[in-house]
UniProtKB/TrEMBL annotation, chains A, B:
It comes from Lactuca sativa (Garden lettuce). One of its GO terms (molecular function) is oxidoreductase activity, acting on the CH-CH group of donors, NAD or NADP as acceptor. The keyword Ligase does not apply. This is Enoyl reductase (ER) domain-containing protein. InterPro entries: ADH-like_C, ADH_N_2, ER, GroES-like_sf, MDR_fam, NAD(P)-bd_dom_sf. It comes from the Eukaryota.
Amino acid sequence: MEVTNKYVAIKANIDGAPQESDFELKNGSFSLLVKPGSKDVIIKNLYVSIDPYQINRMKIASDSQTTSVFATMIDPGKVIDAYGVGIVIASGNPEFEKDDYVVGLLSWGEYCVYNGPYLNKLDAMGLPLSYYVGALGLSGLTAYAGFFEICKPKKGEKVFVSAASGSVGNLVGQYAKQFGCYVVGCAGSPKKVKLLKEKLGFDEVFNYKEEPDLNLALKRYFPDGIDIYFDNVGAEMLEAAILNMNLHGRIAVCGVISEYTDNGKRAIPDMLSVIYKRITIRGFLAGDHMGMFPEFFSTTIDHLNTGKMQVLEDVSFGLEGVPSAFVGLFRGDNVGKRIVQVSND
Amino acid sequence: MEVTNKYVAIKANIDGAPQESDFELKNGSFSLLVKPGSKDVIIKNLYVSIDPYQINRMKIASDSQTTSVFATMIDPGKVIDAYGVGIVIASGNPEFEKDDYVVGLLSWGEYCVYNGPYLNKLDAMGLPLSYYVGALGLSGLTAYAGFFEICKPKKGEKVFVSAASGSVGNLVGQYAKQFGCYVVGCAGSPKKVKLLKEKLGFDEVFNYKEEPDLNLALKRYFPDGIDIYFDNVGAEMLEAAILNMNLHGRIAVCGVISEYTDNGKRAIPDMLSVIYKRITIRGFLAGDHMGMFPEFFSTTIDHLNTGKMQVLEDVSFGLEGVPSAFVGLFRGDNVGKRIVQVSND
C-alpha cells in the first residue's frame, strides 16, 4: 500500500544562518507494507525534535576533519533523520508490533521506515509523549550525562549555564539545583529570565543581551568564581567564563550555537588561565553515555512525578512548521525544547 | 657574618618580549648566619632553573583573574625565586645541616635563605647535580605527570609534542617512546630536529618554521590522526592539532610559550571539533601531582641508568648570564633544559 510521505528537505547546502527559504516540503512515495523478509519497522511520526546541531549537518562538507566527523551530512532533497516519537504501523522486526509507541531516530516527515539499532519501545507511563522527545529523551540524557559525568559536580559548587532556557540548558540548571549547587543561567529575553528564576528555581539569571561586558557580568554573579560552566553557546561567553573559573574548574562543551551560523565567530580562550587554574574543557556527545540512560531516566521520572523538575517545551503542530521552528532556534525564539507534532496520536 | 649577595632582578614590569636590558644585577647584603630561634636554611645556590613561565610573573599585574592566579608576581628590584640545587651553609632547621645538597625553590642569586615547605635534601647518587634541576626535577615531573596523568596514554597511541626540544617537551617525547607510543615532535631548527630524531628516538620531527600550513604538516605526519597532543606553545599549533585530533583525543596544556610575549597571539580553537571529537583539553601544573614524584623519580633514574633516556640540557656558567639565558628562551635558543650554574660545587 503506497501513500504520499510529506517530508522536509534542504534545497541546497546552507552557509551561514538558515532561512525558511532554504527548505522545501517534498512528497515521496512511501510503502506502508514491510518488505518481505526484512526487519523494517514502518512508523508514523508523531513528535519530532528540532535541534540546533542539525545545522552542522546541512553545511557544505569541507575537507577539513571538522566536518567529516559529523555523523552524516544531510543531502539536499533527501529525508532528514531526527529524534522523535512515533507509532508503529507495521513491523518485520519481532521486537516491535503494530500500535507500539517507539522513540528513536525518526525523520522530519510524516512516515519513516526504520531498520537500524536506535529504536526503542516506549511506555509513556501516563506522561505526555512529547516529554520523551526532550526531557526524557536525548536532550535530557545530554543534560544529565554532561552535568554529572563530564562536570563531576560537588554539592555547593557554583554552576553557570548558558542558553539556560534551551532544551538542554534548562535541564542542566534543574539537575544542578536538585543536586545542591548554586546555579546561574543566562538567556536572551526578560521573559526567559523570569521563567527560569520563578518557575525553574535558578538562583540567578541574567539577560546576556543587556550586558555590555560578559566578564563583568559573570564577576557580579559569581564573586567567588565559577566551578562548573556548561557551555551551549561558545564564543565570547566561553572566553568570559574561562576568566571567571575557579581553580580546577570544569567546562562541559555541549554546543556552540553562537558559532554555528557565523563562521567568523569563535572563542579566543585565555589558555594561560586554563593552565594556571588547571581548567578542564571537555567536549561530549550524549551517545557516548547511553550506559547512564537507566539512571538518568529513573531519576528524571522521579523528579517530574514529585514536581521537583519542570518540563519546558515549545510544541507546534504540523510538518509545514518545521523550517520556521528550526530557523527560529538561531534567533532564540524557543523557550525550552522545540518540538513539532507531526500528527495526532 | 654579612656578605654581598649578587642577584638578578627586573628593573620594571615587562610588557611583550623580554630584553636583556629589562634586567639588572643587584647587590644585596646577606647574612650567612641563621637568625636565632628561626628555622632558616642558608643556602649557596649552585644550579638554577631558567624557565619560560617566569615571564608571566614579570608582567604588569592586571585586575583580570588571569594574572591574579599566578602564584606570586615578581616585584621590580626584588630577588626572583627559582627552582634550583644548592648547598647548605648553615641551618636552623633540624632536617638540614651544613654541606647538605638541597633542591627546591631557591633564587636567581648567589645565596638564598629558605624557610618554606618546598626544600628537600638531595642525594645525587653519582649523577650530575644539574640533572636534579631538569630531568629529575620539576621539568621532569611536569613531563611525567602531564603525559601519564593528564594524557592517560595507551600503548600504540599517536602522540604529538610541540616545543619538543624544550625542557619538558623532550622528556615527554622520551617517556612516550618508552611507553610504546608513536611520537612526532616539532622544533624550530634543523639542528634540533636532527637531535630529537637521532639522539632521543622520536619517530618523526619537523621544523615548524618550514611549514607554511601547520594543519597540512600534521596531516602529513599523522595520517591516522593524533590521540594525544602535549601542548607547550599554544596559538596556531593548538588550532592545527585540534583539527587533527582523533575521537576522544586528549590535549595537555602545559605551556603556551608563543603567547607569553605577544598579548595579541592566541589560539582560536574550533570548538565544534572539540564537541564532535569529544576532545578533552586540560591545563595542569606539576605542583598538583607531587604524589607522583616517587614513581616519576624511580622510573626516570632507571631509564637514565639503563640509557633508555637521555638528558638534554643547556648549562651556562655565571649569574651574569641569567638575563641572556632567559631572554633566549623566547627565541628558542635553548636545546633542552636551560640552567645557569651560579657557582662551583
